[in-house]
Design brief:
Keywords: Signal. The chain is mostly helical and 91 residues long. It has 6 helices and no strands. α2 crosses α6 and α5 crosses α6.
Length: 91
């Protein structure tokens, strides 16, 4: 399973990652900053983070999109998930 995830991760285009970063930065950073004392990356790097798989990350991104009041398509949710996975998680 990890090999499959690695292969998928390697196939993610730079365009998708750029879109994911843009969506993340415009819709997620402000809330995460308020929750982490101005250090939004702590949401992804803290030792006790609750996300343990790519699937769980994608589900959490979907929940956060709803909480933030954004109407992302499944492709946009996946783009943000791919960006976060490449940048922080590496499942």
């Amino acid at each position: 399973m990890r090999l499959l995830t690695l292969l998928v991760m390697l196939c993610v285009s730079p365009l998708v990652l750029a879109q994911g970063k843009q969506l993340h930065d415009s819709s997620c950073v402000q809330c995460h900053s308020s929750l982490t004392g101005g250090k939004p990356d702590l949401m992804y790097t803290k030792a006790d983070r609750k996300i343990g798989s790519f699937e769980a990350l994608e589900k959490r991104v979907g929940y956060c999109a709803v909480a933030a009041g954004v109407s992302w398509s499944p492709d946009q949710v996946r783009a943000v998930t791919d960006y976060l996975n490449r940048q922080f998680y590496r499942f």
